[in-house]
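Support case: user asked for a sample of complex input and structure output to validate their parser. Sending the pair below.
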Amino acid sequence: MRVIIVGGGKVVYFLARQFASKGHKVTIVTDNEEEAGAFSRRLKATVLPGDGSDPGVLEEAGARRADVVLALTAYDQDNLAVCQIARRWYLVPRTVGLINDPENEEIFRKLGVSVAFSATQIIARILEERADFEDISNLIPVAEGGVTVSEVVLRTDSPVVEQELQHILFPEGALLGGIIRDSEVIVPRGGTRLLGGDRLIVISESDCYDQLLHLLTGEESE
Amino acid sequence: MGGKKTDKNWPQYVVVVGCGRLGSLLAGLLSQAGSSVVIIDRDEASFALLAPEFSGFRITGDAVEMEILQRAKVHSADCLLAVTGEDNVNLMVAQVAHELFKVPRVMARVFDPRREAIYHAFGIETVSPTKLSADFFLATLEKGGEEKS
């Protein structure tokens, strides 16, 4: 896959490293010359110093043949311009734009950014969930936050411990994806009995997430 | 310009984004011509460029934040002119005004002629000072040439 990343900082560095290690062809565009030098020394990626929202620079970065363009600068206006020019002018099939002001999410989607994500909101959501339930980790919102995937550690005093799955009434929009017990993955079946310390991977619609957590932990969220 | 415009097509309520040399000039002229004008700029000090006769409102803030546009009541504006010094800000604000706030007339200043051509093709009303100056220079040259010959 050919990936163009526009932006700078640690996120871009680690993301580029990860893409490159998976064999993707990465080009980074950053307007910080010093950083461009550091990136090209440390990464297996093509680095282009310049303004990624400049059509000429994007073209030089290979926009005509790119599979995906990621716009990760700290400025919403620049991320929007990068995605729009990439998508609508160079016909890049997929554009991903970082939104800094969560209120701009709607406009990004309306204006042709394929995936618009707000780091602020994702972090806020994770923190909120963590603050409520300390046994829950790795909360990943998918489908624009409509569905969450999370890992719940069962305490020994959980109301579902020692019960078989077929007797547990899961909410309709929730699904148990797997059980991790002593670092082994157990595929859930009707006769599987839950034990304290089990790590449950649960997939849930956001609407019934609270209900699901209540079922598994016995705790009430607010 | 000068004097009140009574033409019914003349915009009643105009939001100007960016109070630089162009923004302050536009705001002053529009306000003199009888429009209600709200001008937005990130930097409060830039309002010093406004003519003393300017009778509109000033809002200090970043127009790429939705909240600032709401405060300027962009939803009831007849016209929005995006004339900050940054092309991408102007293009984003113009599109937000057009798509979300349904402002009937929206124009953006874009310095980069290439970006201007692209967004113009997307259907956004853009003005490129770079291109306008180039055209003007060339036209003047041409005229001079004709006179001599």
